[in-house]
Write a structure and sequence with these properties.
Chain lengths: 279, 278
């Protein structure tokens, strides 16, 4: 494979689309960016970053276990992320400090299980890094289809939850007094978050999901206070970051995880600087 | 079991690091800095991989990286706890750099480093050398001593910052200082259970101790004891069942201890109310 970046953009894009694996990677990336941008925005509003991080990490044991058992990795990603979301959502709410400690314990134990599955399934070392840090090669047609279905369902559910969710996220006490079932809404949203995290894991790897889930949303929050504009902006930023990241990974020797996180962090810094200057 | 030298080294390093992690973990949970602790443990990966990419000692990278991030978190969180969004965005970027270092390591330093990434992520306590074990133990003792010096004011500042500040406790300086100790602990524990799993060693014994005992000093001691106990049981289990990776066994025991604590406290209805409403 001999690819060269040139000043001719049309030529570059043609090179980019020359191989089927890259087309699949771009398709998957686009779906994932839209879902992660939208759901991540609500996650940032609800201050559930730590839960999102844990859900993303739990995709790793899921995928490792699925590969060990000879199943498709996406089954494991989605299965474990959604199961973990239910556990976190339904666990009795203790006091604040212990709640996050429980999330931490679930996370470490899940990762330890991932290690166990990997070591039970020998010769999986390069696969290990791909599961954790992402790769642009190896997204299959079926995976793209699964991502598409999951993404459409998740976005549909987000739209259906929309108003009560936003209400509950911005002012939980007021929402509860108005009869919004905040606990149910919370659990439902965690499940959506699990779906988004599982999807993003398949592009950026479990460890770097935050680049798509948190950074675009955090950037959007710094640029606008209006929820709907912020949500759209978050999706756009996630798309730009993903496309740039995948393109850069294709034309360079460095991995996608590095590029996606770097672009996401760069935009976040720019937005923070912009807000500091304007205010 | 104890006649094997690799087991002796593992016990030496494991015991000292577990005691340290139990003590530091108690304060991390008490201060509600779980997410910061999580971020510190994950960036240790980048530190180690960067050291490998440059070609210096792995521990140098570990300690340098966790200390820098700890200071950053301490400064960013000057008015209390750092914003979780800032923590999340920053540490995912730092991890991204870790991936860059990984690709440099695997392409340019092909020899014998293909397993480095997995080792840093998940630890390799049975592979620790005599010198490394001794260094780990010495560093752990120094860090425990440091923590002992700041324990009283730190406990005061964690339980009630405003009263502590009024009494002349340097609350603002203690926060970053504690995070630096926590960062160094993360660097230590990375060598034992790995960057991805050390967080369980911090959180699980501490959360269990908090459930079982309400008096802070007792809980602190119990947390260290539970961490060391989990370490021993885990090492023994991994030795008895060679298919189990030691890091998994240690984490499984620690998680089991926490689950047990939850069951015991809810059955006997002894769930402790927090003495202070943070």
């Amino acid at each position: 494979m001999d690819v060269q970046l040139s000043w001719n953009l049309v030529h570059d894009v043609r090179q980019l689309l020359e191989f089927h694996f890259m087309v699949n990677a771009l398709r998957a990336g686009t779906i994932v960016a839209v879902v992660a941008g939208a759901i991540g925005y609500v996650m940032v509003l609800r201050r559930q970053s730590f839960a999102g991080h844990t859900l993303a990490l739990l995709g790793f044991p899921g995928a490792a276990g699925a590969v060990w058992l000879g199943l498709d990795a996406s089954v494991g990603f989605f299965g474990f992320c959604i199961a973990a979301a239910l556990i976190l959502g339904l666990a009795p709410a203790g006091r604040a400090g212990e709640q996050s400690a429980v999330i931490g314990i679930v996370q470490s134990f899940g990762l330890a299980c991932g290690l166990l599955f990997v070591s039970l399934y020998h010769g999986f070392l390069s696969g290990l890094n791909n599961l954790l840090f992402g790769t642009i090669v190896g997204v299959t047609d079926r995976q793209v289809l699964v991502l598409l279905v999951a993404g459409v369902v998740a976005l549909g559910a987000l739209a259906a939850l929309g108003r009560p969710l936003l209400f509950a996220s911005i002012d939980e006490a007021a929402a509860r007094s108005r009869g919004v079932p905040t606990r149910l809404v919370g659990v439902a949203f965690l499940v959506l978050l699990g779906v988004a995290a599982a999807g993003a894991s398949q592009v950026t790897g479990s460890l770097l999901v935050f680049a798509l889930l948190v950074a675009p949303a955090a950037t959007a929050v710094r640029l606008t206070a209006r929820p709907v504009v912020g949500l759209v902006l978050s999706v756009v930023i996630a798309l730009v970051v993903t496309w740039l990241g995948e393109g850069a990974a294709y034309f360079s020797t460095y991995p996608i995880g590095f590029w996606v996180t770097t672009f996401a962090f760069g935009l976040f810094l720019l937005a923070s600087g912009y807000r500091a200057v304007v205010k | 079991m104890l006649t094997q030298t690799f087991m002796q080294h593992a016990l030496l390093a494991g015991t000292s690091v577990a005691a340290l992690a139990g003590l530091v973990g108690y304060f991390v949970v008490l201060r509600g800095q779980v997410f910061a602790g999580d971020a510190l443990s994950h960036v240790a990966y980048t530190g180690a991989l960067a050291a490998l990419a440059i070609g210096v000692d792995l521990r140098l990278g570990l300690f340098a990286m966790t200390t820098v991030v700890a200071v950053l978190l301490g400064v960013l969180g000057g008015r209390g706890v750092a914003d979780d969004v800032v923590i999340g965005t920053t540490f995912s970027w730092v991890l991204g750099i870790g991936v860059l270092c990984l690709s440099i390591v695997t392409t340019h330093r092909a020899q014998g480093n293909s397993t480095a990434s997995a080792t840093v992520l998940f630890g390799s306590i049975f592979g620790i050398s005599a010198g490394d074990a001794r260094t780990a133990a010495v560093v752990a003792v120094v860090l425990i001593a440091l923590l002992a010096v700041m324990a009283r004011p730190l406990l005061f500042a964690s339980l009630d910052p405003s009263v502590a500040a009024a009494r002349g406790v340097p609350v603002r300086a203690l926060g970053p200082a504690f995070l630096v100790v926590a960062g160094a602990t993360a660097a230590e524990a990375t060598q034992v259970v790995g960057a991805l799993l050390l967080f369980g060693l911090l959180a699980a014994p501490a959360a269990a101790a908090q459930r079982l005992v309400s008096r802070p000093w007792h809980a602190l001691a119990l947390s260290a004891g539970l961490a060391v106990g989990s370490m021993w049981a885990g090492l023994g289990l991994a030795f008895a069942v060679p298919r189990l990776p030691p890091s998994f066994a240690i984490l499984a025991v620690a998680t089991g201890v926490y689950v047990l604590a939850v069951v015991v406290t809810s059955v006997s209805g002894r769930a402790r109310t927090p003495r202070v409403c943070a």
